[in-house]
């Protein structure tokens, strides 16, 4: 489905009575625990954990706090549960929820039957995420692997797609000298992404798609002329004939390329082919600082040329400039999605592109391990401006036409014969079995994408000439909306049932479930019903670090309950994830940023710390870091190259900053609340600062972000007992203030907390636009 669709809003689940409703007692400080990392972390050391015994409550809160109050679990016991490896048994090999392997999708009818069956969500450590213990266990649900749409729903989607495709195929008055070629692409049924938005594309399931990013650099000194356009036309004809859905974008900026790639990875179900044609080069890898290590970059249309015309200014993410994007950025875009059942084929046809994303190690370049299901084809050529050789594209098309089931091995063998001097082709695969699989799938008739020649029966007798516009936002039909309500009711009812959690906090998690908060640990993204609109959503990531030496025990769990009570009471949808790993947090934040419409509140409770800044942008030389759960029991031998800024237990704020700005949904307000140490400038959206803050502000009008840090960067955040409840000082006081002042603004919160918690810590507000700080915190 196409995310962010405008439909009647599915209301949040009704709040139930909370055990904290009447706790208005004056703060009574009985104990305090500093939210900082224990001695298992290199950067910060805390005192010995008193051999598992809690010290006497201090008369005055300590900035470091007492150590954990309970002993560590005995050897062999599950860190987050009570069952040992012998009791739970060795986990089964990872089983893809769709019931198929990448490139071997089987029949649609069989896949849909598999999707209706319940699944075991938890799989243990994987190549994506090795921070999970193999002994861990998540209570299963009776939810289907995916809610399957009815034929009536699909028919409605096909009608909207037909109207959209018909409009996009009509002759368009393109400026520039490539008007006829672009009109030819449109007439083939290829969708020009430059002319549409993500919200406009109808929510018809996309099974097989190819996207052609070709760059002629029109009007720039390094133009390549018509070569890339002709390549795109030849490829579009090939994939239309093979029943793929075809998208294209000529002369995109790096940000446009990344934004659409992100959307396509999220929305294409079975196979996505991404083709890049243009300039490429190499630069020194700044991460390793080794002159022998090089990073490959792709060159796009210079963003400044477009922005001068529109008056906009974009904030660059790491790995993006006004005209280039590094291969690491695309690698990370794929990993964060974690859809191994989708085969992704990345093709680059440019200078110095043979090792972009590749697992091969050539010419002293670093080794990159491709994610499962990913294939990379790099065609390297020494071209010259205005004279791009089409040897790769013509050879690729010829190979597929002459041998329909040609494999990647076949392609390399064929193109390597008689190859010209200074030309090279490299193929890397995320799994050896992929190299022998067909490059282009022979699409079954019921999986085939609707082509422009097939839409007439779906237009209700209207001629294409009569279609003069399409809605700015795709609006699902009444049939789809009613189905979504039914599926959502089934989905939420199942997750409200008491689950047999194997945790010392089981009763707290059951309480959250019964309140209507959705535990993301028990579901996959694919299980969430389609065609729902998450208008307002609060995502609660709280970390007791259960069973680990640096546990915070019940404090973060109580923080989660306090925040769930608050936001459910204001009719938000609430989701939560206790003791998330870094990869789980990043993956779900990516999905939430893509799918929440009006407001997303992200709340983090746990440890925070600082590490040496690798970006060169931090004034004090330190980057802020969120600390997550890490079982420290890595059993899998395969591990893909990690996302930049993410380790087995931490996520850097610069990594989250880049994720947020890459989405570019300015109509969505994003509120990031962190109750942890050193969180003042967490996420790097710094503008208004306290005296001991620091400046590092982006300048952008295309995002709408407010950050609330519980403690400035050089402070620790405290956890105390207040009103008989152990919780974060910030979270408790924030939730109580919201009860008495429901329309409180961010600035009013800052002023109020100066009086209440300044002897412990100082909160810091940052934002993409200082005007946001005068808005109410909770809508």
TrEMBL record:
Residues 63-76 have a biased composition (Pro residues). Residues 19-116 are annotated as: Disordered. Residues 209-352, 544-765 form the Peptidase C14 caspase domain. Belongs to the peptidase C14B family. GO terms for biological process: proteolysis. InterPro entries: Metacaspase, Pept_C14_caspase. It comes from the Eukaryota. Residues 50-59 have a biased composition (Basic and acidic residues). It comes from Streblomastix strix. One of its GO terms (molecular function) is cysteine-type endopeptidase activity. GO terms for cellular component: cytoplasm. This is Peptidase C14 caspase domain-containing protein.
């Amino acid at each position: 489905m196409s995310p962010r669709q405008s439909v009647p809003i599915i209301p949040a689940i009704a709040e139930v009575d909370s055990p904290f409703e009447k706790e208005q007692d004056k703060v009574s400080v009985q104990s305090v625990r500093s939210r900082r990392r224990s001695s298992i972390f290199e950067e910060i050391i805390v005192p010995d954990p008193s051999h598992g015994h809690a010290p006497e409550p201090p008369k005055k809160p300590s900035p470091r706090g007492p150590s954990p109050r309970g002993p560590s679990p005995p050897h062999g016991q599950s860190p987050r549960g009570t069952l040992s490896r012998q009791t739970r048994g060795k986990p089964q090999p990872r089983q893809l929820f769709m019931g198929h392997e990448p490139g071997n999708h089987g029949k649609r009818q069989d896949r849909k039957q598999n999707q209706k069956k319940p699944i075991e969500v938890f799989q243990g450590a994987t190549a994506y995420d090795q921070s999970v213990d193999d002994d861990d266990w998540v209570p299963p649900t009776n939810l289907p692997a995916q809610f399957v749409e009815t034929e009536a729903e699909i028919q409605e989607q096909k009608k909207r797609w037909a109207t959209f495709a018909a409009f996009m195929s009509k002759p368009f008055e393109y400026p520039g000298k490539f008007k006829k070629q672009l009109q030819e692409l449109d007439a083939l049924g290829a969708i020009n992404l430059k002319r549409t938005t993500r919200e406009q594309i109808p929510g018809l399931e996309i099974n097989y798609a190819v996207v052609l990013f070709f760059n002629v650099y029109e009007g720039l000194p390094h133009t390549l002329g018509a070569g890339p356009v002709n390549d795109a036309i030849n490829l579009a004809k090939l994939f239309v004939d093979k029943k793929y859905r075809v998208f294209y974008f000529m002369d995109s900026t790096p940000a446009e390329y990344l934004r659409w790639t992100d959307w396509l990875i999220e929305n294409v179900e079975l196979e996505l082919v991404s083709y890049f044609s243009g300039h490429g080069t190499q630069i020194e890898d700044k991460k390793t600082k080794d002159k022998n290590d090089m990073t490959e970059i792709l060159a796009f249309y210079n963003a400044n040329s477009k922005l001068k015309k529109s008056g906009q200014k974009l904030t660059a993410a790491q790995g993006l400039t006004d005209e280039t994007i590094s291969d690491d950025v695309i690698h990370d875009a794929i990993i964060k999605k974690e859809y191994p059942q989708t085969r992704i084929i990345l093709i680059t046809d440019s200078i110095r592109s043979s090792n972009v994303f590749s697992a091969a190690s050539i010419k002293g370049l670093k080794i990159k391990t491709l994610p499962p299901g990913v294939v990379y084809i790099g065609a390297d050529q020494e071209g010259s401006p205005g004279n791009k050789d089409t040897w790769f594209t013509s050879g690729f098309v010829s190979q597929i036409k002459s041998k329909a089931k040609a494999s990647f091995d076949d392609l390399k063998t064929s193109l390597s014969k008689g190859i010209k001097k200074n030309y090279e082709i490299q193929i890397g695969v995320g799994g050896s079995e992929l190299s022998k699989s067909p490059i282009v799938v022979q699409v079954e008739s019921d999986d085939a994408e609707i082509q422009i020649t097939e839409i007439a029966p779906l237009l209700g007798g209207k001629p294409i000439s009569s279609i003069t516009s399409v809605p700015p936002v795709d609006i699902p039909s009444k049939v789809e909306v009613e189905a979504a309500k039914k599926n959502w009711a089934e989905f939420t009812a199942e997750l409200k049932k008491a689950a047999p959690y194997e945790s010392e906090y089981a009763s707290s998690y059951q309480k959250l479930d019964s309140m209507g908060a959705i535990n993301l640990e028990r579901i996959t993204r694919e299980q969430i019903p389609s065609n729902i609109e998450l208008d307002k959503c609060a995502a609660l990531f709280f970390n007791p670090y259960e069973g680990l030496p640096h546990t915070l025990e019940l404090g973060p769990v109580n923080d989660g309950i306090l925040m769930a009570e608050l936001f459910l009471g204001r009719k938000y949808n609430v989701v939560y994830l206790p003791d998330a790993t870094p990869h789980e947090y990043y993956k779900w934040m990516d999905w939430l940023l893509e799918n929440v419409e009006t407001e997303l509140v992200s709340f983090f409770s746990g440890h925070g710390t600082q590490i040496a800044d690798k970006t060169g942008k931090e004034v004090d030389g330190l980057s802020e870091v969120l600390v997550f759960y890490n079982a420290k029991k890595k059993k899998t031998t395969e591990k893909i190259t990690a996302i930049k800024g993410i380790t087995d237990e931490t996520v850097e704020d610069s990594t989250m900053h880049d994720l947020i700005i890459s989405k570019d949904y300015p109509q969505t307000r994003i509120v990031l609340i962190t109750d942890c140490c050193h969180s003042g400038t967490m996420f790097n959206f710094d503008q208004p600062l306290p005296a001991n803050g620091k400046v590092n502000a982006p300048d952008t009008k295309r995002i709408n972000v407010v950050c609330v840090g519980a403690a400035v960067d050089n402070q620790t955040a405290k956890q105390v007992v207040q009103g008989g409840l152990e919780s974060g000082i910030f979270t408790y006081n924030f939730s109580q203030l919201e009860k008495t002042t429901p329309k409180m603004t961010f600035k009013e919160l800052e002023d109020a907390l100066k009086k209440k918690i300044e002897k412990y810590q100082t909160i810091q507000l940052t934002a993409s636009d200082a005007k946001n700080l005068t808005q109410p915190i909770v809508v």
